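In this section we walk through a basic example: taking a raw amino acid sequence and producing a predicted 3D structure, encoded as discrete structure tokens. The instruction is simple. Fold the sequence below.
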Amino acid sequence: MSENHIPQVYIITGSGSGIGRAISQKLDSKNNYLVLASRRKEALLETQKTLKHSDSKILSLDLENSKSINDYVTQISSLLSSLGATCIKSLIHNS
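The resulting token sequence is shown next.
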């Protein structure tokens, strides 16, 4: 990402396969930063390999585990700060 450009940040849960992966691929553009979320890191890596235009980050997330959710929120906050973004464009919950 260019330092002058603040990306549109999208969080996509369940992005390791199926509809979540398809949504990630649809949002794959130079102006977007995708946060791929799922319990299975290997599946997220496969999705990430299919993305050609956007920057992306993999963050493990187990929505049944409160510690995992708290850790995820902390990581998202740090990520937004590092990107110079003040908000999330969209949260697409597909888990």
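Looking at the output, two observations stand out. The radius of gyration is 12 Å. The CA atoms of residues 1 and 55 lie 7 Å apart. In the next section we compare this with other chains.
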